[in-house]
Write the structure tokens for this entry.
Amino acid sequence: MEQSLMLVTDFYEYSMAYTYFKEGRHTEIAYFDMFIRTIPDGGGYYVFNGLHKLIHFVENFKFSTEQIDYLHSTGAFDQEFLTFLSTLSLNIDMWSVPEGTPVFSNEPVITIRGSFIEAQIIETILLQCINYSSLVTTKASRIVRAARGREVLEFGTRRAQGHDASIEGARAAVIAGCMATACTEAGMKYNIPVSGTMAHSFVQVYDSEYDAFLAYARNNPENCIFLVDTYDTLRSGVPNAIKVAKDYLIPNGYRLKGVRLDSGDLAYLSKSTRALLDDAGLQDVKIVVSNSLDEFLIDDLLMQDAKIDVFGVGENLITSKSSPVLGGVYKVVAFEKGETIVPTIKVSDNIGKITNPGYKKLYRFYDKDSNMALADLIALADEIIDPNEYEIFDPISPWKRKTLTNYIVKELQLPILKKGKLVYDVPTTLEVQTYHYEQMQTLWDEVKRLRFPHKYYVDLSQKLWDLKNKLLEEKTI
């Protein structure tokens, strides 16, 4: 698997690397930042994820003989370069925000320092690792928030765009707060809870719905969640679930855990189902719903006072269907010339595509009393941030200024790799889940709104802002 990923790279990465090599510039050092320009679904934040896969790739970076032979067959490279690639290892430095961190557009979430070839050749796989995982974690975070404390289960394995997406999507969903996944492989690989009971086909192969529920109860008495909409939810499904609970489960010391609705008007059906269950003395039985749910439908159902305890969310989560691409980019921001770090900038007629130059650090200010996030700051790496008072300003409208006091300031990027060696303790998936929950509590509800969220402050330091404008003047003369 790791070897196959070596060529999951845009071909121009090799064309550029070849040119650097032939020009004798392949040992020069560059700095690259990874960031996004636009938050999906018009949201107020996105959730960084995918670092674990990137670390795994870097640690297993090695070309196979077959891959070198293929590159030779393209006729684009000489043998000297291919011999160089065959012995290449990644001695890069990497800084990154931790997985599960809520972050914002234009913030450098990963910074890479390495030779021109090393830093360039990992661009595509880096973006693949981060873009999909961050996209699905963000969508799942929005869905979990919409559920208002009710359980959310990830049901998207069969709708995922490939087996790897189903596994990584399941991990992303659990990090964002989903209680379990339907993906068995993800459960094994990442030690996360798995969940699943029955499909409509199971009910259909028995002579009656009652027989199907009873057979399931006899063999899975501690995990009975019956799918009650195969024929008629209120006249058949729910009554048969109640009957099996009273005929078999309760007499044998078990309880019916839940019933699942997978079609129809979920608000109406959940209320009617709750009434039937309560009348039967089964107030503890949970109502689980599925069927093309997303954060907006969940929010609407709860505004209608739907009697739902658990949401099973599939395709709209695992594919982030409403916003299926996270536009993460990877841009060079500086070079080393001797002992000097020389900043560089990309200029564009599109203001949003102008990069922030230089080797930088990302900081977050937290209120000392409430621990709520106040603002983020992108500053040059050699700057010292005053721990007591700091003036922030809008980088687009610099006359809008605010002085922060009574804060704790934290650097968000952590050292991950030093000369290719891991210097970071990679957390488990459930540890990332806990960290994500804690970090989300530091964001104001206004920033986390599903619709028209408040814009969180992400500002440049005065020194960085001055540098950016100086370079823009130089490049546009």
User: Anything to note?
Assistant: The longest helix spans residues 123-146. The first strand starts at residue 29 and ends at 36. The chain has two domains: 2-136+324-475, 197-291.
